[in-house]
Every structure is written in structure tokens, then in C-alpha cells.
# Entry
Amino acid sequence: METATAVLADIFIMFLCAKLAGELFERLKQPAVIGELLVGVILGPYALGWIGVPTAEMIEAFHGEQLATEALHSIMEVLAELGVIVLLFMVGLETRLSSILSVGVRAGMVAVAGVVVPFVLGYAFVALVLGQPTIEAIFIGTAMVATSVGITARVLADLGHIRSDEARIILGAAVIDDVLGMIVLAVVSALGQGGTVSIGQIGLIAAQAIAFTVFVALAGRQAARRWSAQLERLKIRNAPFVVGVLVMLGLATAAAQIGLAAIIGAFLAGMVFAELSEQYEIEHKALPLYEFLVPLFFVITGSRVDWRLFMDGSLLGIALAVTVLAIVGKVVGCGAAALGLGWRRVAIVGVGMAPRGEVGLIVANVGASLAIIPSEMYSTVIIMSVLTTLVVPPVLTLLYGGQSANPDEVADYAVADGRLPDL
Amino acid sequence: METATAVLADIFIMFLCAKLAGELFERLKQPAVIGELLVGVILGPYALGWIGVPTAEMIEAFHGEQLATEALHSIMEVLAELGVIVLLFMVGLETRLSSILSVGVRAGMVAVAGVVVPFVLGYAFVALVLGQPTIEAIFIGTAMVATSVGITARVLADLGHIRSDEARIILGAAVIDDVLGMIVLAVVSALGQGGTVSIGQIGLIAAQAIAFTVFVALAGRQAARRWSAQLERLKIRNAPFVVGVLVMLGLATAAAQIGLAAIIGAFLAGMVFAELSEQYEIEHKALPLYEFLVPLFFVITGSRVDWRLFMDGSLLGIALAVTVLAIVGKVVGCGAAALGLGWRRVAIVGVGMAPRGEVGLIVANVGASLAIIPSEMYSTVIIMSVLTTLVVPPVLTLLYGGQSANPDEVADYAVADGRLPDL
# Structure
């Protein structure tokens, strides 16, 4: 009971400070997610120590500080896992398979170039310039692959250009990018767990990941279409929402059990329900879960950053170098694939693909939990995710010439943005 | 990561089986909560062991099965705590202070009688019939004082009677009961520690508990009225819901920190927002949290029942006697204080006040940690807590049998009932 009471206090502090920071960052016209991360860094055991530090009772119950900290860490990890699963489920709910398929060759090219160029740059920098082990370089490259569709969409919606050609290319490419990034992450995670790098193994895992993804996306959509009418015959309350959450948890568990990241399952579960989402208001009903659990993920993620590492000048240099490569990689890769749209749109597509946001953090967490990347590189990835996110809103605003948002378009995109539609 | 993955599988299994059982019990026209409790007993570590059993990785991480189980137990406890807090918050949202005050005198009588009669019965049985030491008898009496209103609230909501007179009396009495029970526990703990009980100390604890309850109920409502307009000026999304969750977590934490049950704080938080709930759809938005977290509380509660305790004949005899006294004590005490409402409501109030739930377990744990009560009496209190909890749903259903709430009433308080109103 003492443990639950202590953790309850931690959850309250995390939620309070996350929302205060969110309010502040909203007023500063910056993504709330950055405030949540900073809150985690400040509250965490490496700074104030208001969260993530076991109580005397816990230390006694677990016969020492080390295991008590481990137990508390496990509790936080479960909360963070639930948060990120809900986050990816929501992203999936925004993602109709048809919209991915209809955005065209251009979005696919942008996505592939946006995966390949940053990965190569990240890999080359860590392996060749820093001289770190191959697996570590692969992991940093993977962290640089991701595009955070949520933050990209949020910035475009805020600027009022969500319906523009370049926005549709960015959104479509970001979605494909997410799927590609997840497959890359699944491959790399399996490599990290196995330790050996065999081409056949990579092929097998990639095939498994693609098979799981394609099967769930296609068969799941068929099943959702065929059985959606049955949902209304269930006696349990809010059956469509409950079944959505069940499938989210089930596919997340299934993905984790077969060695993929749990979030892949959650994302696919969202995509399965994307077409039913409007009819049954699944997204609308999942939003409170999002509001409660997702900030905990970012605060807990931030709390794992040991800021003292950045007092080390050389480490800070590496972090800044990785950040510059992460931005250059997307701008060059995505921009090149978008050539022919005019320089301004090319630049917008490139910069718009740059934010790594939570997806970079997810990769960092997987790498850290597999003990593949050392804590300096973990912190480097987090700084890179934060900086690529921070830098994009002002640059995009500049590229659009400071045009103010069209309120109708913002309202239209409100659900993706996490704002409740008017009822 | 392995721990989070393993717990994710547990959460999926719990949620899946809870909803399957819920569907079955809805079709049998029984409260879903009974199904959820039974699912917990069956899945739990003492039966099938599908949940609550640490994986090999966890056992390795915690240097042995005992601490790994303890860590997993802590994780489950946090999930269960969040569930029961959300449950009482939702019940509070249904409960306007004015409606509690309108039954205030009656509720106060029920609470006091519900403390005195079970305490006297428990003390008399252990001291006079069993011939155990006075301090032990006092402790068993104290364990019989508590009321854990969560399950009663859930059953009343499931059956469609949460806004009835008897429900308001039970809820009001439960709040008073908890304050009284806490004072008694503080006194008894001080006695148990061999120390003298300072009147000033008791006064301080009592004043703190009463001040907290009264201050939150009255000042909270004032604050909610005065500042509700400010909620609309906040930039964060879904500000009223987010602030509601914040106050829920904050008051639950505050209550726990001053020694009250966390659920009392959550209930008061709900009551503070009761008048704003409709305007801002707080209840509507909190419902998904309820749907996700509350079943976990009941499944986890069920999973803690060690049915093997019931195999020991002599222990079972004493435990059953204590259980009967615990129920009779509440039915007679609370019922007598509720006389004049008609026999059926008297019985409902008495039975509704009977569950000891986690509050009884807290007292047992305090007694065990002070080495006041021997392990057989500890097991007795646990059996009593479990049985008084398990017995309530079917008996209340029976008492309401053939008198199910009329559909209009159900629709009226549909939100408490977990049914979404039409939008």
C-alpha cells in the first residue's frame, strides 16, 4: 500500500507539472511535448528527484535502494508503455490505409529518401567519425530515421496549411516513414537482442515485420468492415471503444511477443479501426486516455535524461552534430525527392519531415532497455529529438512568410491535433 | 522493457477476460463487477496463475522470486489504485454536496452506528469468546470498523440506483466512516506501539482528517464555482477534464498523505466538480478512463484471494464467524440508524456498508507490522475483507431483485452507469 501511495504522489506531480508546462508552451506557441520532456528532466532523479526516487518503505520492502529503484523503474515503465501505446493507437486512428496508398509516388519517394539519407548519415557519423561499435551506429541511424507525424501535423495545422500539396505529401510520407521506421526498429531490436548481424536474419525479421504489418493492416481492415455491425449487438457499455482498446492491447502484446515493438501493434490496431473511428467516435473516446497517459510517457522519458552528461563539452558537441545531421539528412533526402515543386515547397517538405519527436525517443528507449546504446548516446538521441522538434515550428513559419492560420482549416484538422471536435 | 512487456500481456489478459465476463454477466442481468472479481480469482496466482506471476527475466532482475513477485504486486497495486480512484471520482461527480447534506443527519447516524456496533462485536468475540489478549481484540474490532465503498458504489451504479436516497446515505456515511475509522486506527496503532495515547495527538489527527474533508467539500465547491470560468481561458486541450483529473490525483494523494484512504480524496474531488460536470462534460470524458482502469481494479482485487485459506477448517470457522459478525454489525448498526426507510432500504444500507475491501486489509497490515495480531488472525481479517466484499454484489442484486431501476432513471444517471448519453 505504501508503494501505491508513493507512486500516486509521483503520478500527481508528473501530471501537474506536465500540464503546467503544456500550458506555458502552448502560450509560447511551442509544442507541449517539449515542455513535458523538460519537466521530466527537471523532476527526475538526476535533478530535483521529486519523481523516480523510492521511499524509505520501498527500500525496506525491497531490501535495499537498488532493487527498490528497479521496482519503481518497472512501475514507471509500465505507465510509460501504456502511454506510448495509446499515442501510437491514436496516430493509427488518423491513418487510413487508403490515404497512404493515394498520396502517390512522390510521398513514397520522400519517405524512402527520408529514411535512407538520415540513416546513412547517422550510421556514418557514429561508426566512422566517432568510431563506435556497428550495432550502436545502426541504432543511432535508426533513431534518425523517424518522423513524428503528430508534431508535423500539429505544426502544419497551426500554420493553416494542412490542405496544401506540400502538406499532403509531408503527411503521407510521414505515415509511410513511420511504418518504415517501425520495421527498421523491429529489425534493429531483434539484432540488438541477438547480437549477431546476419543478412538472412535481417531478411527473416523484415519479412516477419512486413508480414505482420501487411496482414494486420489488410485482414484487420476486412475484419473491421465485416464485423463492425456486430459491435452494436454487444451488451457491454461503449462496446466499439472497449473492443478498440482490446485490439490495441492485444496487437501490442502480440507484436511484443513475436519480437516486434509493442507500439507497432498499437499503431496497426489504430489503423484497423481508422475507418470505423468516425462512426463510433473511437478516437473521441480514446482522447481522455491519451490526455492522461501520454504526458506520463514524455515526463518519464525526460526523467531518464541525465543532464549532467551535457556539462561535458565534447558530448554536447556530439549531440549538436547529430542534431545537425538529423536535420540535414531530412532536408537533403526529402527535399531531393520533392524536387520540381519549387524551392520553397522543397524546403518546406524537407524541414517538415525533420521533427523526430516521440518516435526518436521511442527508439532511444528501446536501445537503452536493450543496453545497446550507452547513456551518453541515449541522451544525445533525446537532445536530437527535442532540438529537431524545437527548430521546426519557427523555420516553417519563416518559410510560409508568417501567414496566419486559417481558423476553418485548423478546426477541420482538430481531431488529429488532439482537440476535441465540437459535439 | 521485459517487465513492461510481461505486464502488458497481463493487462491485456485481465482486460479481455474482464470484458468477456462483463458481457456474460450483463446478459445474465447480473452486475459486471461480480464477473470481474471472479475472473481475478480464476486468473490469479493462486489458481491459473495467468496474471500476477513474475517472468523468468523479472525473477533474475530482482534476484529471486520473492522480490520479483513483490515488484509485480506493486505494479498491479498502482494500476488497481488508479482504477479505484477513477471509480470514486466518477461516483463523486454524481454526488452533489447538497444531496449528501440533505441526508447528512441520517448518514452521520449510520456512520457512527456502523463504527460502534462492529467494533463492539469484533472486540467481544475475540476477547470474550476466543479469549485472546485485549490489544488483539481491539485490533480485530478496528479492522471491522472500516467501510470500503468502492464495490457498493459500483454495484449501485450497475443496478441503476446510484442516485437513490439509500445510495446517498451510504456514500455520505462512508466518508464519515472513513474519517472515524482513521481516528480509531490512529489511536489503536498508538496503543499497539506500547506508547501512551496522547489526547493532543488524537485531536490533531482527528482535526486534520475532519478539516480536510470539510474544507475540500465546502471550499472546493466555492473554488469550482468561482474559477470555473477561468478553465475556458486555459490553452491546454480539454482543460476542464484535465483540471478535473489533476484535482482527482491531487486530493487522492493529499488524503493518502494525511492517512485517509486515497479514494476519499478522489470522491471529494468528484464532488467538487459535480456541479461543473454537465457543463464541461467532465464525466463524459472521464468515462474512457473508467472503462479502462476500473475493471483492472476488480480483477486485481479478485486475484489476491487465496482460496486455499478456505481449506483450513478451524481457521475457516473463526473467519466465517468474524465475517458474519462483520456483516451483522453493519446491518444491525447501520440498519438501526436507517430505520424508517422501510425494511428493504434498511437492509440495503446495512449490506451496502458491509464491504471492508482494502480498508480492512490496511488495518490487518498495520496490525501485522506492529506484531499485534498473529498470522491466523491476520488471515481471518483477510478472509473477512474478501467475503464481505464478495457477498455484497449478489445480496444487493437480490435486495433490488424484481425492482430494477426504471429505464428512464437509468438513462438519467446513465453516465454514472457507464453508459454514454446520446450526443
